[in-house]
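Practice record 12: protein with flavin mononucleotide.
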Amino acid sequence: MDFFEVVNRRFSARKYLQKSMDKHLLDTILETVTKAPSAGNLKAYKILALNNKEIKSELAKAAFNQNFIFEAPVVLVFCALPEISSAVYGKRGAELYSIQDATIAASYAQLAATAVGLATCWVGAFDEDLVKKILGLVNERPIVLMPIGFAAENKISKKNYIKNK
Ligand SMILES: Cc1cc2nc3c(=O)[nH]c(=O)nc-3n(C[C@H](O)[C@H](O)[C@H](O)COP(=O)(O)O)c2cc1C
């Protein structure tokens, strides 16, 4: 698949097959993410890969009952690490660069997942404090919840996910 085909094929999948994915696919995605640019090359982000059913269920609830998060075999949680960035770039690092680092990483992951035949959805609507509590995060700021797996739909879904969020 060339780059433009990957870009054209990516869509927000909100239905997933109950099919596990090989670890090497996830490794390929995470390896691709390491190639993403980051401010000062600090990579001020952390990625959690979660497959525990209870945790996925709690995350779905924290995301205002977006239950497809639970259906996906794996959920990647992209977190910004503001303290890493602020150590070099101060307030701008904490408030902007670390968020951008995590966001760019998530974008690379979406495209890499598409390139290996997987589907994702970018989930930004969630209760941040609750997600932090569920995952025991202290210095990490969760930016994106990203269910990942084999899509049970292949149409391009432009459906609005939650009204007024
Ligand atoms: C910052 C951000 C937040 C988003 N939050 C959600 C979300 O909470 N739930 C959801 O289903 N989709 C979410 N999306 C996905 C968008 O709805 C989707 O990308 C857009 O409608 C375009 O559709 P496509 O991804 O299929 O091309 C989010 C996307 C972005 C970039």
